[in-house]
C-alpha cells in the first residue's frame, strides 16, 4: 500500500475533477448519504468528499472467489468522514470510564449499504487510529475513483461505483462493498448488563443475541475450547477465540436467509460488569476477512492471572504483531457478549 500526498496527487485530482464534470457533475452527480446516530447528517458527492477531506491513493489486493485482485483506489478515509459527523462527546477517544453508558466512539458502528441491499458493518473502534485502525493509507476508504492503466477513472463509470468501501488487509473481498449509497451510524440497544453497575470481577460470561444457542461460559468452559493468543500493552494473553466462540460454539444467526455474506452485518457488544461496553464487528475478526486476533482471555501466556482486569478480559489486536493503540476495547471483567444484526430492529 502507499499513500500519495495531496501535493503529489494534484495531477490525478485535476483529471478526476474533469472526468466528474464530463459525467454530468453538479446536481446530477451521485451522492452518498451519511445518517443515523450523528449530530450532522450529510450527503456527499465525490467532488464534495474530495474537497473536504484528505485524498488517499491506496493499493489493495484480495481474493474474489479464488481469483487474486489488485486495485488502486482514490478516496477519503471512512473514519474521518464518520467522525466528523458525530457529536463532540462521541468523537473524542478516551480511557475506559467505569459504568460509562454514554454513546462514546467505541460503542458506535457504521453500516454501509449498497444499492442492491448488500450490507457491511464496521466498528468505529476498528477504524479509529486511536484504537484498532491502521495509519493511512491502511484505513478503509470511501473510494470514488480507480487508477486503470495509469488513468484516473471515476467509479461511477465502472461497475463498482459511484462509491466503494475498501477494506485493506482483508484476505477476501466481501467487505469491499460496491455501489454504496448509504452510511448509517448506530449505537447498540441496551443489553441486560449495560448501564451503571457495581462492577467487580467476572466469573462467567453470558453469550446471547443473534446466536443459535445462548449460554453462559465459566472459566473452565472457556479453557475447554481451543486456546488462542492475543497481545496488548506488552503482555500476551491466552483465551478462547472470540470468533470461534460465536461462530462455532454457540453459532451465529441472521434474519436475512440467503443473503450473500450476511455475517458481515453482525457485530458483538462486549460488556463489563460495571456496564462499560465496546463494539467488535464480526467482519474484522472473521478469518476470511479482517482476521484480527480477538480472544476472551482467562490468563496470560505465562500462566498468570489477569490481575485488575478480572477473571475474563476481551483482548483484541490490529493483527498478530500489532496491538491496538489505546485500551478502551480491551474490556476488563467481561460479563456479557451480545450479538446484533445492524440495520434490523
UniProtKB/TrEMBL annotation:
PROSITE patterns listed in its UniProt record: PROKAR_LIPOPROTEIN
Keywords assigned by UniProt, alphabetized: Signal
Signal sequence coordinates: 1-21
Protein name in UniProt: Molybdopterin-binding oxidoreductase
Lineage, top ranks: Bacteria, Pseudomonadati, Pseudomonadota, Betaproteobacteria, Burkholderiales
Amino acid at each position: 500500500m502507499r499513500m500519495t500526498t495531496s501535493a503529489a496527487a494534484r495531477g490525478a485530482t485535476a483529471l478526476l475533477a474533469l472526468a466528474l464534470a464530463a459525467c454530468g457533475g453538479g446536481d446530477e452527480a451521485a451522492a452518498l448519504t451519511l445518517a443515523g446516530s450523528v449530530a450532522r447528517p450529510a450527503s456527499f458527492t465525490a467532488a464534495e468528499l474530495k474537497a473536504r477531506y484528505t485524498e488517499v491513493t491506496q493499493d489493495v489486493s484480495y481474493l474474489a472467489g479464488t481469483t487474486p485482485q489488485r486495485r488502486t483506489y482514490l478516496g477519503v478515509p471512512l473514519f474521518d468522514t464518520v467522525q466528523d459527523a458525530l457529536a463532540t462527546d462521541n468523537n473524542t477517544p478516551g480511557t475506559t470510564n467505569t459504568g460509562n453508558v454514554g454513546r462514546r466512539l467505541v460503542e458506535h458502528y457504521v453500516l454501509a449499504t449498497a444499492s442492491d441491499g448488500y450490507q457491511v458493518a464496521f466498528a468505529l473502534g476498528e477504524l479509529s487510529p486511536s484504537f484498532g485502525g491502521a495509519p493511512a493509507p491502511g484505513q478503509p476508504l470511501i473510494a470514488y475513483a480507480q487508477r486503470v492503466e495509469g488513468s484516473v477513472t471515476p467509479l461511477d463509470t465502472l461497475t463498482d461505483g459511484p462509491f466503494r468501501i475498501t477494506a485493506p488487509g482483508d484476505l477476501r473481498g466481501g467487505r469491499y462493498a460496491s455501489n454504496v449509497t448509504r452510511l448509517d451510524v448506530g449505537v447498540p440497544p441496551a443489553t441486560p448488563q449495560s448501564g451503571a453497575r457495581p462492577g467487580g470481577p467476572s466469573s462467567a460470561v453470558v453469550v446471547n443475541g443473534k446466536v443459535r444457542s445462548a449460554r453462559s461460559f465459566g472459566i473452565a468452559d472457556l479453557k475447554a475450547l481451543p486456546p488462542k493468543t492475543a497481545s496488548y500493552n506488552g503482555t500476551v494473553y491466552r483465551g478462547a477465540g472470540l470468533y470461534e466462540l460465536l461462530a462455532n460454539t454457540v453459532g451465529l444467526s441472521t434474519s436475512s436467509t440467503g443473503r450473500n455474506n450476511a455475517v458481515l452485518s453482525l457485530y458483538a457488544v462486549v460488556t463489563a460488569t460495571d456496564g462499560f461496553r465496546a463494539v467488535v464487528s464480526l467482519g474484522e475478526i472473521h478469518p476470511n476477512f479482517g482476521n484480527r486476533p480477538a480472544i476472551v482471555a482467562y490468563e496470560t501466556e505465562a500462566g498468570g492471572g489477569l490481575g485488575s482486569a478480572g477473571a475474563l478480559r476481551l483482548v483484541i489486536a490490529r493483527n498478530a504483531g500489532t496491538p491496538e493503540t489505546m485500551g478502551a476495547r480491551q474490556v476488563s471483567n467481561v460479563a456479557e457478549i451480545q450479538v446484533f444484526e445492524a440495520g434490523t430492529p
